[in-house]
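Dear support,

We are seeing what looks like truncated structure output for some complexes. This example has two components. We would appreciate it if you could run it in full and send us the complete token output so we can diff it against ours.
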Amino acid sequence: MTAATAPAIRAQSLVKRYGDKLAVAGIELSVDVGECFGLLGPNGAGKTTTVEMIEGLTRPDSGSIELFGVPWGKGRNRALQERVGVQLQDTQLADKLTVEEVLRLFRSFYRRGRGVEQLLSELDLTAERKQQYHKLSGGQKQRVALGTALAGDPELLFLDEPTTGLDPRARQSLWGIVQAFQKRKRSVLITTHYMEEAAVLCDRIAVMDQGKIIALGTPRSLIDGLGLVQFVEFETKQVLDEAALSALPVVENILRKGEGYHLRIDRSLSALRVVLAELERQRLTPVGLSTHQATLDDVFLQLTGRALKTESAEVHAGATP
Amino acid sequence: MSHDMGPPNPLVELTRARVREFLREPGYVFWVFGFPLLMAIGLGLAFRSKAPELPRIAVTHGVTNESAGVLSESPQLRTQRLTSAEAQRALARTKIDLVVDQPAPNQPLVFVLDPAQEKSILARSVVKDVLERAAGREDRLRIEERRSREHGSRYVDFLLPGLIGLNLMGSSMWGIGYNLVLARKRKLLRRYAVTPMHRSHFLLSYFFSRSMFLIMELAVIIGFGRLVFGTHVQGSFTALLIAATLGAAAFAAIGFLIGARLSSTEVAGGWMNFVQLPMWLLSGSFFSYERFPEWLQLPIRCLPLTASNDALRRIYNEAGTLGSVTFELAVLAVWTLVGFAVAVRAFRWQ
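Here is the complete output from our reference environment:
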């Protein structure tokens, strides 16, 4: 395959273990030039380990990785490093340097790249250019981190949970920067555990759990894969006759978590009416009853039986070796 | 340098980042520049060399006013008039060195003294000399006196090169070792590791920033010593700079070694103190290590701080040349080479 037509990323049979924990258990993925690809999953799913192997930071135990048709090779590959921009999870930059000093420092590492002025305006940090890093807000720090990744004007950008801990406004401002980058036919590999983020940014998504990819496709195709369904959620302290409920032909599936119920039912108003009538027949008073169309959160829940948002108690295998 | 002048140079930017990080941390600046000066002031005052004390004598009320007047006017004595009984008591308590008594008018003067006390003996000859001259004695011999005060013989002269040595150790080890560990802890090193940054640039930026601070540190301590204590560098500045640079390099190598892998600043701080404390005590910064037993002398001389102190002291106080400190320079060179060689091999970016 020639370099011109090679995908931005091609990873095959990636395996990585830390001690006796299998962090990544055989992953295949390919990201085209100009594509934004999302790795989705809860903490400990192996997203960070996967990304760091592709970034060349961590060596896989087995498997192969090529960026633009070029393997990382044994030693350092500075030619490839010139072509990629990386934002690592929770890096703290030098506290006492100002925004523009940090950006100029990172810019100096690359043979070609974006000017510091250009970066400042793209990142909307012109007003903060003289601020020292430690005085910035969380969202501003993340934008500086993104700026260091963009300083070399990369062809491929890696973002590892870039918006974790940010408020919705800061999150959207970051999304805007990534979208602007991608518009210039550049490629992005992003990890996140926010389904909304993946739905907004990504052309394709791989859902990861316990070191494996358990679903792969466009956000739309993953949601449609659930069928023509809708979801009903409610809580109740009373005893629910689950058997009677699941016996209804419109009910496809019931998931229970403590006092909370998550029902997948046919996507029709009459189906909803049937379910509500059954709850009424059981003399239940549901709390916080809601219905919604399928989202990526439902995809994850249906795939794993676990909600994505709840923080996993598993070892944070991906973060630090 | 302006940011309009084309792409920034990585070595320049990395070095500037080091310098800025240092200068913007008031704590570091105090420890490197303020602390040694405070030490110099404190210890310099505590141990400043004083003029020798004058002999203290008591003249009893029995002594004629004429003789008593001659003694109390002499600038070579500190004289007070007491009763016989008071004078005896003061002598017994060594508050005075000699009593001049006269049991009755027209009888000879009596000196009461403790011949075991050096100061009493001195007082006796001074008092005798003053009285004889007053009585008209002429000197037969002409003796000239020339006053000399040897440079570099005061305690503060001894201390200043030791403070430079301590400063080199502290600032090089903390400035490099701690800085590396902190950067690793904050995952900044792994962030650098995924850029095409030249690793040699990263290392050299420490070298250049340390060299700049070295010159500033030397200038501050030497300038302060000269202004406040009148201490002069007897040897050549070039020799002093070369010895100090080699000392700083040896400590940088040790700092680099400590910072090669650790990612806990607390553990790194513990190692720094563990390495530095014995040298604070043994290496002759505050007092001569020759007081330690004979068998310890060679090991002590092979410590990098001892080698720095000895080399700096010989150049600073004794006008020594580089040739006169070859042993010390060799010790520092070995520490530097071995330290860096091991550290480069052991170094981890994450």
